[in-house]
Specification:
The chain is mainly alpha-helical. It has helices at 2-18, 23-40, 50-67, 71-80, 89-97, 101-111, 114-131, 148-164, 173-183, and strands at residues 193-197, 204-208. The protein has two domains: 2-67; 71-183, no CATH class. A hairpin with a 6-residue loop joins strand 1 and strand 2 (204-208). Helix 1 (2-18) packs parallel to helix 3 and helix 7 (114-131) packs antiparallel against helix 8 (148-164).
Length: 210
């Protein structure tokens, strides 16, 4: 009984460290990694050593970084629904089938105008206001509710928001998630699809990966 409890604790610590790996990697290699570590552990060890856990955590984090798509591919996928290169499709599968995907999608859609607004529009609005000879913190040429620079930034952000958000209304919901999975060759449940050439030349058929 004591050996069983020790084994369960040892294994639970290993699996906790494996959470640093991407989910698809844990599903494919997690049991193998745990089984190998259990076979190699010393008889008197009740929990994995700090070095072993640190090694798993570091390797998992590096794997996540390596499999994360480049920024331009990520932005195209996240905001425009573009297909990412094949080597990053496992990351897409984890994203689309993960918990709170719909919540993350809504947050990114709402925050999308903020990024270009902060990077481009804020400096441009400040420069344009000062170049025109108007006091940025004065109330000249304003509605009287806030300083000139504040009203200018609010108008720019509102213009970007009403332009962007209506264009992305079709990027929400389960239908959109299933569409993106299919675009990356996955079934709605996340299982992969294999493209296999039939005997007739130039004909392609889909079949489930065994």
């Amino acid at each position: 009984m004591g050996d069983r409890l020790t084994m369960d604790r040892y294994e639970s610590e290993l699996r906790r460290a494996l959470r640093w790996y991407p989910r698809h990697y844990r599903e494919r290699h997690g049991d193998e990694i745990v089984a190998t570590a259990l076979d190699l552990r010393e008889p008197d060890e009740s929990i994995p050593g700090r070095a072993e856990l640190w090694g798993l955590m570091t390797a998992g984090l590096l794997t996540r970084i390596r499999e994360f798509p480049p920024l331009w591919h990520w932005a195209g996928y996240r905001f425009l629904g573009k297909r990412v290169p094949y080597r990053y499709r496992a990351w897409v599968r984890d994203d689309l089938t993960g918990r709170r995907y719909h919540a993350r999608n809504v947050v990114w859609r709402v925050l999308a105008p903020v990024i270009p607004f902060a990077v481009f529009m804020v400096p441009l609005a400040v420069w344009a206001t000062m170049a025109s000879g108007v006091d940025p913190w004065g109330h000249e040429y304003t509605l009287g509710f806030a300083p000139k620079i504040v009203e200018t930034l609010a108008q720019c952000f509102l213009l970007m928001a009403i332009t962007w958000w209506p264009l992305t209304l079709n990027n929400f919901g389960e239908r959109r998630r299933v569409e993106l999975l299919a675009r990356h060759d996955f079934y709605p449940n996340g299982r992969p699809v294999r493209w296999q050439e039939q005997q007739e030349p130039g004909t392609i058929a889909r079949c489930e990966r065994s």
